[in-house]
Automatic annotation (TrEMBL):
GO terms for molecular function: gap junction channel activity. Keywords: Cell junction, Cell membrane, Gap junction, Ion channel, Ion transport, Membrane, Transmembrane, Transmembrane helix, Transport. It is found in: Cell junction, Gap junction; Cell membrane. The gene is inx. Structural component of the gap junctions. The chain crosses the membrane at residues 53-70, 117-134, 190-208, 280-303. The keyword Ion transport applies. One of its GO terms (biological process) is monoatomic ion transmembrane transport. The keyword Transmembrane helix applies. GO terms for cellular component: gap junction; plasma membrane. It is a multi-pass membrane protein. This is Innexin. Residues 375-415 are annotated as: Disordered.
């Protein structure tokens, strides 16, 4: 479609595109995402500035420019030979892709600078929005599920002041005891993700510089103090985004036969481009600076004294030990990955509870406790066969009927009379009854005794 020499892109389908409803949906998504709490161990504020804030900024830039292309006149052209004649739509389509401005160098030579980015800026925003989400996709594959769940529990109950915080403190302590000195990989993954985010920032900065033909890197510096030249358009912003351009159709375009057509065009969206790119330039400068400084801070954390700053907290009124001494003891018991994870826990605990956690982690025998806990956790549970084993095969197991048995009463053996013992063992009949001697030996040893004689004295025998 064209109207009065102007052109706008046709609407999608048979009806118009409801951009307001689309922007309203995007705004609701941005609000919900902005209020979400960062609970992933491999996530942080700097990464959130990339995959969330910059992502939605570029998506917003895409829809803003896309709305202009589909609902406004994006170009108006007139012929240099007949300004009253309307320009054909196919001519305007070529001018959208290949407008140019004439640039005069210091030697007086005139060259053409084609504004090839004019038609494709919004799609560049969309592609870069997808690239800025790459750090988040990588971080999801590097998460520690247990640590993430623990941070989620801390964040969900951070506003509760009953016994919930005490229970969560026990969970944090048991987790640290069982997994002490095993989080260096988590720290290195987090450092790597921030380096990737910085690489994305630098890549985006150079991509925009390539898109704007080498005029983006110094765009903000050259544009300051933002004085404009509305008559000759000689200022840096107008030179980068010229509102008026030329368009030439020659025999090579195969649209004008054997002649050459020159058109003067007004690029109406250039006024929007200059403001959008100025904001993007300023944001990327801030983002690159903050990301680079944060990486330096993460690298300095490899120095033991420096990473003690991560554990700084207020001493409660009932605290008995100085905070500096306490932090030094915790630092000796932990590695850099453990300190990083404690720093993440710190943001969801009160000062008093975090101080109590450090008191417990400052124990010099904490490594022995870790080993004992590991041995207890590594001991296999009793099998079903062991539980059903008879009592005589498993002496350590309690007897199944032991609960119903009465305790045995041990009788006390009375002292024995030695005369009585000698009389018993001196009687052959008694020994014969117990199998000690035979009956013949008894008869031989008692020949003088009569059967009817009732005298059983040992002296007579």
């Amino acid at each position: 479609m064209y109207r009065g020499g102007g052109s706008r892109m046709p609407s999608v389908g048979t009806g118009s595109v409801d951009i307001r409803s689309i922007l309203s949906s995007i705004l609701n998504v941005v609000k919900s995402r902005a209020n979400a709490i960062c609970t992933a161990p491999c996530d942080g504020a700097i990464l959130k500035m990339h995959y969330r804030w910059t992502f939605f900024m570029l998506i917003g830039g895409f829809f803003t420019v896309w709305y202009q292309w589909y609902n406004r006149d994006v170009i108006t052209c007139v012929s240099h030979y007949n300004a009253d004649t309307q320009v054909r739509l196919d001519y305007i389509n070529v001018c959208l892709s290949y407008p140019y401005v004439e640039v005069v160098d210091e030697e007086g030579n005139t060259t053409k600078r084609y504004l090839l980015f004019y038609r494709w800026v919004q799609w560049s925003f969309l592609v870069l929005a997808g690239i800025y989400y790459i750090p988040r996709k990588i971080s999801k594959n590097m998460e520690n599920p247990k640590a993430k769940k623990l941070i989620e529990d801390l964040a969900a109950n951070a506003s509760r002041y009953e016994n919930a915080e005490h229970i969560l403190l026990e969970k944090v302590y048991m987790y640290m005891i069982n997994n002490l000195k095993t989080h260096n990989g988590l720290y290195m993954k987090y450092l790597t993700l921030n380096v990737i985010a910085l690489a994305v920032d630098i890549g985006a900065f150079h991509y925009f510089d390539f898109l704007l033909q080498g005029r983006f890197i110094t765009y903000g510096f050259e544009a300051y103090p933002f004085e404009r030249d509305p008559e000759y358009f000689t200022d840096y912003i107008s030179q980068t985004f010229p509102p008026f351009a030329l368009c030439t159709l020659t025999i090579q375009n195969a649209l004008v036969g054997k002649r050459t057509e020159i058109f003067g065009c007004h690029l109406t969206i250039m006024e929007l481009y200059e403001k959008v790119f100025l904001f993007i330039w300023l944001w990327l400068i801030i983002l690159i600076t903050m990301t680079a400084l944060y990486i330096v801070i993460l690298l300095l954390a490899m120095i033991p004294k420096f990473r003690e700053l991560w554990l700084r907290t207020a001493k409660p009124i009932n605290g008995t030990e100085k905070t500096n001494v306490l932090i030094s003891k915790v630092n000796k018991n932990c590695r850099i990955g453990d300190i990083y994870l404690l720093y993440r826990f710190k943001s969801h605990l009160s000062h008093a509870k975090f101080y109590e956690l450090m008191i417990r982690l400052s124990d010099p025998n904490i490594n022995m406790k870790n080993r004992e806990q590991t041995v207890i956790d590594a001991k296999p549970p009793p099998s079903k066969q062991t539980q059903m084993m008879p009592h005589h095969n498993n002496p350590s197991a309690p007897h199944p009927d032991s609960r119903h048995r009465k305790p045995q009463q041990h009788s006390i053996t009375p002292p024995m009379n030695p005369d009585y013992i000698s009389q018993i063992y001196g009687n052959p009949e008694t020994l014969a009854r117990h199998g000690q001697v035979s009956q013949n030996d008894v008869a031989q040893r008692t020949p003088l005794l009569n059967k009817n004689n009732t005298n059983t004295s040992i002296l007579i025998e």
